[in-house]
Structure formats: C-alpha cells, structure tokens
Amino acid sequence: MAARDPGNEKPDPSDAIQMPPVHAPAEPAHADARRGPSLLTVAWALLIGAAGGFAIWVNLNPVEHVDLGPPVAAQIDIPVAAPEVPPLPAPAPEPEPVAEAPKPAEPEPAPPPPPPPPAQAAVPPPPPPPAPPAPRPAPARPEQAGTPAPATPVQSEPAPPPPAAAPATPPQTAARPPAAPAARPAQPPLPPRDVEPPTWVRFARPFDPEDKRPRIAMVIVDLGKSQAATNAAIQNLGGGITLAFTPYADGLAQWLALARAAGHEVLLSLPMEPTDFPNTDPGPQTLLTTLTSRQNMERLNWTLERAQGYVGIVNAQGSRFTASTDAMRPVIDRLFARGLLFVDARATQASVATRVADDVGVPRAYADRLVDQEASRPAIDRALADLERLARQNGAALGIAQTYPVTFERLINWLPQLDARGIALAPVSAIVNRQPAPPAATTGGAASAPASPPRN
C-alpha cells in the first residue's frame, strides 16, 4: 500500500475516474473553438486577397471594355448631331435658292411703275443675300432631315420676307388659299336636290320623247274581277298597253305588281255616278253628285289608298258626275295634290272633266273611241282604224277597250302592224296634254254616250 502511494499519487484511481468525465469533454470543445477561428481568418484573408486581385484586374482591363461600349453609343449620337452642325456652313450655297425665291418677285414688275425707288430696292437685294443665309439654315435643316416636314412650310413663309418681303410672301399665301376653294366646289353638288317628280312621272312606263311618230294609247279597263281575263291582258298584250284595275278587285296590290313587272303602265278605275243611277250602280264607293264634297273625298281617298304604283285614274261610268263642274273640281284638286294624271273616259259628250283638269293643271287625256262598244270583229277593226286616223290628224289618240275575248283577239292582230304604218304604241303618260280640247259633240265612238257604258 505504501509503495503505490508514493509512485502513483497523480493517477489516483479515484481522481482519474472523477476527472475524465468532467474535463475530457470540455477540452475538445475548446480545442475545436480555437481551431475554427483560425480557418475563418484564413478564408477571409484569401477572399480579401482574391477581391483585391480582382479589383486590380478590373481596374486594368474593364477600362477597355467600358470604353468600347459607350463609345459606340456616343458615336451614334455624335453623328446625329454632327450632320446638324455641318449644315450651318452648308446653307451658304442655299442662298442660291433664296435667289430663286425672288422668282415670285416677278410680280414686282407691277410695283416698278413707281419710279426708281423700286428699281433701287431691286438692286440692293443681291448684297443682302449673305445676311439672310444665317436665319435660313434652320429651315434648311428640317427640309434635309425630312422628318419635320410640317415645320418647313411654316418656316418657309417667314423666309421669303428678307429678300423680297412683300412680294415673295403674297404669292405663297395666294397659292395656298386656292386649295381651300377647290375643296368647296365639291360640296355644292350635294345641295342641288331637284323637287321630287310627281307620282305619274315616277311610275310611268319609259317612252322615247324624241319619237316623232303619231302616238296611240290603248287602255284596257274592268281588270281585276275576272282572274282569267286579267291574266290574259297582263301576259298576252304587249307592255305598251295600259291596264286599268277596279278598286274592288281582290288582291289588287298583287295584280298591279304583276302588271308593272310585265311592263304595263297602270291606272285605277274611279267609280262615278251614271245618269241612270241607281239602276246602274258602280259600287259602294261610287262618287255621287248627291253627296257632300267631304263624303266624296272620303270615297276618293279609299280608292286611291287601295294600291300603289299607278300613274292616275280613269272614270268608270260617270255620265252624270263628270258633267258637273262642282262635283269634278274637288276630285281634280285632289289628283293635283297627289301628283296623278286623269283619263276622261268620255262617258258623255257633256263631260267637263278634261276642261277642269286643264284649268287646275292636272295632266290629262281623254278617250277618242270606245273600241268595243260593239263587240264584233268588224266594229272593233273600224274603231282601231279611226284611232289611226285621229293619231295622224292630232298627233295622239286614245282608245278604251274592255276584257272581251274578241277585243283581245283583234288587238293582238292589230298591234304588230302599227310600226309598219308609222304609228307608235304609247302608254297613257306619253300622250297627256297632246290631244286638242275635246269637241262639244261628236258622232260615234266614246264621245257619244254609249248605250251600254263600260262595266267598272
């Protein structure tokens, strides 16, 4: 026991067991902490050294790269400004165009009449040109630049004053004002609006006004009641035949459209009171001498509103009504207001309808013959021959026919012969106001009251 104590006092088993657990962990911790800072310092030193070296390299090399970049931009900007500077001296030759500016001064010959002063003024201009060039370089640049084109006209106006202030500028201003008036004349064509032509002109069948041949107009009345007869008239008779439809027809608007599509000019039949009314009754909308003017106007309006596309009206019956001036005047006035023409069927030789139409100014025509008053071939042929004679005598004639099959047969046979005989088949609108005033009394035909007046 004594020998262990002197030789191993430090490594006492008790002490060694107690110390390692306490100091062993602490020592490695301190050792690591001491080693860590040394590595960091070395790293920082390396970084600082690298940064310094990089900075030195940047200071040496970047100068070349930085200079290469900016100079390119600087060179682009500098040339833009550079061309502007050279033009300053360049304008010196431009005075020559200034000398050209005096060309407008050619009007100065007019001022010369006042003696030498103007002549002396004309002489000095040569010396002044050197002075003006200084202000003009600015305008010259915009013209060369090309982009500020608008600036050129504005500056060009002040430019002329130096060489010849008064004379040079006026011609330029005078040249510009004309442009404004030139645009104005284009506007006048718009305002000219002719008055709308009357209805009878708008819906008339075209006819050559230069045709100097005698004209015959043929009107077929009583259409719209029989579908077969109406179709036959529209399809089989030439477009030069005028068709008159009763206002009582079913599908009146469609009939008128078909007739116009086939080239026919169209009239409406207006029922009027006959002398034997009510034994002969033209229908519920008949105009009567026993009604007031207002009542007759209501019936007239009913008829006129039944369809569109017609050029006027023709009286159906009316041997009593058309003989009354008081009864006819309101009717003719209404037709005038509506722009329609009037065809007098001459149901009586006492008819005043044509004379009233002439007084009011309504285009009119009247029947010279009722072609099929006697529905036979010989009678119809004689009536057609009479129409040819009257057309040559008066320049125009009008016949009225009904929807008899024999009438259509004779018309189809007669119409192709008109051209060879030097006669033109014309629509009613082409003979209005061409017939002389109707005679007070005639024999035969429609001028005398027919025993069996046409049906409406």
What is the radius of gyration? Answer: 56 Å
| Tally of contiguous helical segments | 16
Bulk shape: elongated
Mean pLDDT: 75
Helix and strand content put the structural class at alpha/beta
Strand content: 5-15%
Task: Please give the structural blueprint.
Elements (H helix, E strand, L loop, with lengths): L3 H4 L5 H48 L1 H23 L10 H6 L15 H7 L14 H9 L5 H6 L4 H23 L15 H4 L12 E9 L3 H10 L5 E4 L6 H10 L4 E7 L20 H12 L7 E6 L7 H14 L2 E4 L8 H8 L3 E3 L2 E2 L6 H18 L1 E6 L3 H10 L9 E2 L31
Parallel strand pairs: 1-2, 1-8, 1-9, 2-3, 3-4, 4-5, 5-6, 7-8
Helix pairs in contact: 12-13, 13-14, 15-16
Briefly summarize what is shown.
Strands 1, 2, 3, 4, 5, 6, 7, 8 and 9 form a 9-stranded parallel sheet that branches.
Molecular structure report:
With 456 residues, the chain is of the alpha/beta class. Helix content is 46%, strand content 9%. The protein contains 16 helices and 9 strands. The protein has helices at 4-7, 13-60, 62-84, 95-100, 116-122, 137-145, 151-156, 161-183, 199-202, 227-236, 252-261, 293-304, 325-338, 353-360, 377-394, 405-414, and strands at 215-223, 242-245, 266-272, 312-317, 341-344, 364-366, 369-370, 396-401, 424-425. Strands 1, 2, 3, 4, 5, 6, 7, 8 and 9 form a 9-stranded parallel beta sheet that branches. α15 packs across α16. The protein is elongated. The model is unreliable at 22-26, 71-76, 78-83, 97-102, 117-124, 137-188 and 441-456 (pLDDT under 50).
